[in-house]
Amino acid sequence: MREGVTETSRSVYDLHMTIFWVCCVIGVIVFGAMIYSIVNHRKSKGAVAAQFHESTTMEILWTVVPIVILVSMAIPATTTLLAMEDTSNADMTIKVTGIQWKWKYDYVDGDAAGVSFVSSLHPEHNEARLLGADADLSKFGDHYLLDVDNPLVIPTGKKVRFLLTAADVIHAWWVPDLGWKKDAIPGFVNETWTKVDEPGVYRGQCAELCGKDHGFMPIVVVAKAPEDYAKWVAEQKGAAAAAEASADREWTKDELMAKGEQVYTTNCAACHQANGQGLPPAFPAIAGSAIATGDAAAHMSLVLNGKTGTAMAAYRDILNDADMAAVLTYQRNSWGNDAGIIQPAAVKAAR
Amino acid sequence: MSTATATHDDHHDHGPAKGLMRWVTTTNHKDIGTLYLLFALVMFFMGGAMAMVIRAELFQPGLQVVDPQFFNSMTTVHALLMIFGAVMPAFTGLANWLIPMMIGAPDMALPRMNNFSFWILPFAFTLLLSTFFMAGGGPAAGWTLYPPLSLQMGDGFPFMIFAIHLAGISSIMGSINIVVTILNMRAPGMTLMKMPLFVWTWLITAYLLIATMPVLAGAVTMLLTDKFAGTSFFSAAGGGDPVMYQHIFWFFGHPEVYILILPAFGIISAIVPTFARKPLFGYSSMVYATASIAFLSFIVWAHHMFTVGMPVVGELFFMYATMMIAVPTGVKVFNWVSTMWKGSMTFETPMLFALGFIIMFTIGGFSGLMLAIAPADFQYHDTYFVVAHFHYVLVTGAIYSIMAAAYYWLPKWTGNMYDEKLGKMHFWISTVSVNVLFFPQHFLGLAGMPRRIPDYSVQFADWNLISSLGGFVFGVSQLMFVWIIVKAIRGGEKATDQVWEGAEGLEWTLSSPPPYHSFTDAPQVK
Q: Is the pTM of this model over 0.80?
């Protein structure tokens, strides 16, 4: 097991190693007795079977001794568990939402309050895994599938409280170096916390089967020293303001198509495929589909709200107006579709 | 002890009917036992083929063989087939063959229901497998079918639910039959505390099945109405709770785990004394330990869901209760080792599988104890460490015990000895390859690889490659098992009635193969 980078992860690691060695010692004793018996008490060596078949003393002994060992294990385990579940006195709170198949982070309070972004599998990794057997994975080093477009950034030395929830199905947020995982459940909020002391990049991924691309929703946490963290917060706020402004202007078709392709690759291609043909019957084609070539409002509403009972998620909270307009335009004008462009302003109005 | 003789059924026509209809209409416990065992073998190979697809995809990083959705249906259906199609029917088959012979009865108590409970199964699994050809494909939400994910399944969803209902009905009927047989048809003098442990463990298992199968049926029915009737049992949007499904499921699921292992304890408790030529050590403590495990199995379910965000008191309770299971399980292992101690041991194939069981099941028990520690489970949960753990207890546990049983009683069933040399080869190849297959998965889990993913980071590549190689060898070597059985059915050295020098119990007083109606005159047990 990884020792990790928090106090919690280190005490979990210690528990793991203690119970591991306890098991090893018991194993040596039990298997030792068994092997001694197998070697020495065999018929081919002329062993004659004894006929004893009961001993209350022994039965009591091997009931009581394990109980004592278990109690001595339960005490440190209880202490660690109580510390892990204590989310009080947090310095800041981040809301984590699991979405098929990406994570959304909302900074609830503190300097970064209001910062919000979606974190998905890094486009280069996504492209590689969609290539299947032809992909060259060597360029990713040890991080193939463990890189994202927008990592979660937290300050070092601060107790960060996480509120976990999900938009569609159950996910689980797991970064081994932090020492725990916790389920993100639609309609409910789970609480947990971490405090990272050393700046660094810590990687993990979704740990609860959440559908087709469960294996492709990594988590990257970047812990930054407080002053670097403050810089990052300022950048994020600037970027958010710029995105807000861009939604109000008129976009050209080329701009929308270029951005749309990007958004499509990140959000849609896993199911509907890069060529728009989908993976029928579970994931329908967009190329030539009635929705993507028909009424613009219906198309927009489907992508905004999703389709219940299927894996089609609601993208209302995942894509901003410009991204939404771009991806809709891209879908309506690619692979032989020719159904006109949609402006960010129209999306804004439809919300 | 008196012996029933093979000549007894000569004077009226009680032999099996001829042809195919013998197997369709049979009410004979041996024929039905054979059907169950063959069905389990077929399912074992189908589930095994799916495991091969999984290991082929995980052979190296990148997606080479299947798409992720199909990969998920492979893991899901592999589990459903192995649990409900292979291990459970195999144990029921053994119960059918052996319980009447062990308690001195002519047949099972409810023979027509026995026929019905078997013949439901092929339909149940045909329904389940047919979903692969429907819009949306086979089930892909894991065998636990957690909502809301399981509700995203396509047209096959109701067929899968109905298949589970049918398999459950079959299990309940089989269990009722076993309980009634054991409680009513024992030979005179066979008190409960004189029953062979296989009979005891099955009696307790049957009660577990009767208690928990309806719970599973209820849970999946609620899934069905959530999908089609607009109920919101498991949807927060309608006032329900997705976690409630997990509580209900594991209230079934944890006893289910013991349903898959208690009969194995009975088998090992029969085989070890035979080949140690020494009575089982601590018979009564074995019975009490089995009963304690069964009781504890009802109060530990939430250790499968430590990460769902339970109140800390709940987590503590389930942690302590789970750790307690180590006590009666330990008692069993200690008793087996003491049975061997100062025995006069020989190592025929059944004994080899039994010894393999004891060592590797105990390794699975150790990782189970580690998983019980809730704070550590926050790291282990849903990783390959868990996959390694339950394959050690289910493959080298449950399945090894079934193979041990097959070798042990095959001479009795067929009247012919199996090929001992091939049997030993089967054991050694299986044991080496199964450890190459599953042991590295501990390392993968501890290094941070989640379960149920079709593609992984390059850092996990080496152990996955080794694990896959072990998997392929283990998969192919099981064909030896089939060949050995076929060979023994066709002929071979004739088995004596006693078969094994140290074997004790009523089934060994019957001829090999035994008469069609085991004991037509009840033997007297002293």
A: yes
